[in-house]
Amino acid sequence: MSYRTVVMYMEIVCFVICVTGWILVCSTMPTEIWTWSEVDSIVLTTSNYFSNLWKDCISDSTGVSDCKGIPSMLALNWLCSMIAFSYYGNKIRAEFQDPNFKAQKFEIGVGVFIGWGGSTLLVVGGLVYSIFAGREGCHSR
After folding, report:
1. How high is the pLDDT of residue 20?
2. How far is CA 109 from CA 2, 13, 20, 69, 106, in A?
3. What pLDDT does 17 receive?
4. What's the domain of life for this entry (predicted)?
5. pLDDT computed for residue 78 by the predictor
6. Check: CATH 1.20.140.150 for 3-139?
7. Among 2, 31, 106, 112, which residue has the least CB neighbours within 10 Å?
């Protein structure tokens, strides 16, 4: 197999990796569980608190949930996906481990983990593609 064929296949693989990463990152946007917490207050009543970028919700043991939407997208402070997921996860971790934090403590939800995985695929795919594209550019001269 020639060098150009190997480079072509690597570029195709990197493209597929990046598309998979974008699918994972985009699938986290409608995911409701970015943070969650469970409170057992009474024997018959269990409350689950969960939230994502757009709403905060509470659900009881009967399955009824009540959600409050965040009124403005401009209130969100996000840039790049890996930075956003890492910032969000670090904020949850810091609040959970802080002994002086008296409000409801949350745990990291599924959406953040999927976002980290998708962002990692995007970074790896882009990095490998850049390496092979740079080598191809050097060999074509």
Report:
1. 93
2. 46, 30, 20, 18, 9
3. 92
4. Eukaryota
5. 44
6. yes
7. 2
User: What would the pLDDT profile of 122-137 be if each residue is shown by its tens digit?
Assistant: 889 888 888 887 766 6
In Å, what is the CA distance from 123 to each residue of 17, 62, 112, 116? 9, 42, 16, 10
Mean predicted confidence (pLDDT) in 33-37: 80
Maximal CA-CA distance, the chain: 74
Domain-wise residue ranges, the chain: 3-139
DSSP for 18-52 reads HHHHHHHHHHHSS-S-SEEEEEE-SSS-EEEEEE-
Rounded mean pLDDT of the chain? Answer: 80
> In Å, what is the CA distance from 41 to each residue of 30, 45, 46, 48?
29, 7, 7, 11
pTM: predicted TM-score of the whole model, two decimal places: 0.70
- CA torsion 113-117-119-125 (nearest 10°) is 180
